[in-house]
## 1
Amino acid sequence: MQSLHQRVPSARGLVAAAAGVMVAGATIAGFVGAPAALAAKQAGVQRGGVIKFAEQPEAAPNYIFPETTSANQTLFNNSQFINLMYPLLYAPSPDQPTLDWAHSMAYPPVWSDHNTVVTIHLRHYMWSDGVPVTSRDLMFYINLAEAEGPTWGNYVPGEFPYNVKSFSTPNPDTLVMVLDKAFNPTWYDDNQIGEITPIPQHAWDKESANGPVGNYDETPQGAKKVLAFLQKEAADTSTYATNPLWKVVDGPFELKSFGGASSPDVFVPNPHYSGPKPYISEFEEIPFTSSSAEFTSLKAGPSAITYGYVPTEDIPAIPSIKAEGYKITPAPTWGFDYIIPNTKNPQVGAILSQTYIRQVLAHLTDQTTMIQHFMDGYGVPTYGPTPLFPKGNPFVTKEELTNPYPFSIAAAEALLREHGWKVVPGGVDVCEKPGPSGCGAGVAKGQKLELTLLYSSGITIMQEDTDLFVSDAAQAGVKIIPEAKSFNTVVSQVQPCVLPKDKNTPYCSWQLGEYGGISLSTYPSGDGLFETGAAFNAGQYSNPTLDRYIKEVFTAPNLQPYYEYENLVIHDEPWIWQPVPDNIFATVSNLAGYGLTSEFDGGFGYIEPQFWYFTK
């Protein structure tokens, strides 16, 4: 599952939806929960205690229904909120870009018939009302995903569940899927099956609050009615802690109170959870309006925040944070940050559709200065669709190891002049030669190179990066007009433009959008990102050759199609890449546990506080 994240001063670490060459079909028998089980036997482990977890600025969770749409499929909803109550069928590993078979709700998928049939066997889990989690719950999620269609957060044309010829549930513990062709098992496990979240069919398959539970989801019309009812209920955040629907959970925690953006979200252990019981007595997620507000709270000591982060601008103050009793753990993230050009915007879509324009914007992005001066060296550059960290990861081509469009005002100006623009340093460039042989198809004579940038507020480092980008672009006559709004607002305005519904304003008013970036899963194939019509392709970029490469990745026995995809993305610059700040975790010195500050699903990613504990 891919999830949108906010760019934060300390970044986040997560695997959420698409990367890593793993051994297909790797298995770990039984639910051993090895690290957690060993921890429980260690001397000095304390039962009880409250973890106070710092949320990212202006990015409080605001959606509880696991069947998220593209507009609310954020890391903060999926990986830091929903998963505490409704875990993914297969959890990501905290230590490497793979799935965590041992700590998942099902045994590793079994592949057969030349990789055209995949069988899932559930482990024994119970809903909090005493009903078993069954294969019917998996089908319920799948049926609602089909009913959601193109607005589903994981939607990609022709992919799961549309690449399944038939489903069957031979018994309550088994789901069998017959696929429409042979697939690469590792890719399919990570990016298709990995999207499934069990949801309680026996409690939610209804069309109204007072209506009976049935099997409505088994028809397309009925599934749409059920989906509409559940989405309506999920829109009322004031009832998240009281609505009987959300009381039926299968995860390690249940929601005691919901504060949203104004007060903490408080979780307590689910007494009926079938996995390893949480050590702690309460988990609180604390909202903040800015990174400086979070750091002020962090400086107050462990009574205010148990698990927080050090904003990059406050790195010099790390010794004082350590003196308060915190451990500091820096770690890169598995994902990347970017600015999305809206290629279908009615005013400037024709400009942003030009590959050379996106390359110009890349030349005007000074990633080196951003990392050295705004991140204090705690950051990683981004040159393409694959994270450069960890070094030596098999997805990175040699082309991505160096910046193809290094920061250069002169190079940006040269590209613009070459394509028929009158460059006005300090002013606004003007198209003098319209048409395909000049500024590009659809770009009119006299059109100015003036663009608005909608970006997330409350983050010092994003403000600094934006200011630098605006200043550098102006030197080449590219006028960038910045507009800051909260992360949730930016996402809600940018993401729905994947599938415009209003014919009068079909492609939204934003021109450049930046909420941060995306956290990846364990096989970064690009299908949810750059494929035509994909859920995260908010800028409506489209390249048939790239679509073909992406589809070839699904079935290829090696990474060659992936490399073709990667290098084409590097050339085309569909997004304007930004550097990724490291996570700089601050945890109280006696807090420990499995995946606590991992660079993949720990920290600001797929958190699993059921494995965390205080030492005596």
## 2
Amino acid sequence: MKFEKLFEPIKIGKVEIKNRIAMAPMGIIGLASRDGNFTQRAIDYYTERAFGGVGLIITGVTRATEVEPLPPVVPFVSHESFQSFAELAESVHHYGAKIFIQLTGGLGRVLFGAWIDRGLMPVSASAIPAYWRPEITTRALSTEEVERIVKDLGNAAKLLKEAGIDGVELHGHEGYLFDQFTTAIWNKRNDKYGGGLEDRLRFPVEVLSAIKDRAGADFPVVYRYGLKHYIKGLRSAALKSEDFVEAGRDIDEGLQMTKILEKAGFDALHVDAGCYDSWYWAHPPLYQPHGCLVEMAEKVKKVASIPVINVGRLDIPALAEQVIREGKADIIAIGRALLADPHWPKKVHEGKMEEIRPCLACRDGCGTRMLDEHKSISCSINPATGWERSSILRRVEKPTRVLIVGGGIAGMEAARVSASRGCQVTLYEKHNRLGGHLIEASVPDFKQDVARLMGWYGSQIDRLGVDIRLQTEVTPELIIKEKPDRVIIATGSTSIIPDIKGIDKPIVATRIDLLLGKKQAGKSVVV
């Protein structure tokens, strides 16, 4: 398949982007210094994606105001951090990518619970329950505080332009502070920032005006928002198939919002869905199909004339091309898939789709690791993410024979890395195929990305010339006979069987169609 549309240039405002592929914004907790600078690790992280061929990089959320007191865990735009923003811009520009900084007004009601526990008071558009600690009521920002945020973000944009940054995106999605102001369920204000939709949108529109005033009319500003929130109430999510009354923003209001934002002068719209209360949409897991939010962008395209960016598991190349070709969006934004394989664009452009390491949408290294384990961003299948410089695979200095025991994911990764470094690798697996537990994990329909990952490993170790020995159990005698320089034991995990009454009994299904997909009610089957 040719990907002509995907690699056509496009302009956001007067900034030309070399292709229709953007790196979606994702938080980079752990890659910013305590004084708000991008660390060298952060610059390497974004530069690797620029080298990989992406046209536009939209950074993770960045702060630019101290109205809301927050711990220093994300980049902060200031004179002190100016140099790191300039270095980032120069580095990604070297590979032909453009870079937009995503600015936030604040976290508001979604301030992390651990920070509230340490004494920080969450703020919001109104006095409402905090998301992570609903027993705590947020403090409503004063009119003067909102006006201060507007001024601060305008000044920040001026600094960013001077640093060589190409544009900004306002983070009005996912239930952060801009979203809280623009949505009636969270905004109960009676000043100029509350009331009808246009008044609720006054906050981001004033920020847009401040940015254009300070950074210039030609400095592009994108607005990112959810067309629909998919919530039944506070902390109550909804699925697409449910019969429910939308308590947040519904599609009709989202489309009205689209018209207001374009009229106000935003240069592009980044369309999403969901919020913290419905993370199933804002961070679609593997249960959500690829392209799960295409219809949202398609609806916006029908009422907007400025570029529309679409996001939501668009990492299947043919799907990404189809979305652009059919006019459902102008730019596709890929997030987690660029963590799994930062060279996704280059490989698509060169027709090397089989070499793309697929994202599992597991939300492990890019979600759980940061939020629950308080560690820096990474990727469960690409541990080099966030450590790009220190993870460069260097050739071994002298020939090394490596024997690997076990052909599951650990053994296959060990074989891939060892062979990439120039080692002579022999991989032993006692069963008749490689894959280990990935084999059974790939059976459900919604886990076909696991099957894609197995296929990727197979093609990689075959291309690298790994000697594969199936149906062979490794013994001490075999190792002595082969005389390897290194032995890697990757024999897999041992299953934990929970102590549940009846777990040792066979599973009985009263409808055989549950297993076979056939309508043969009344029969039973034991598996």
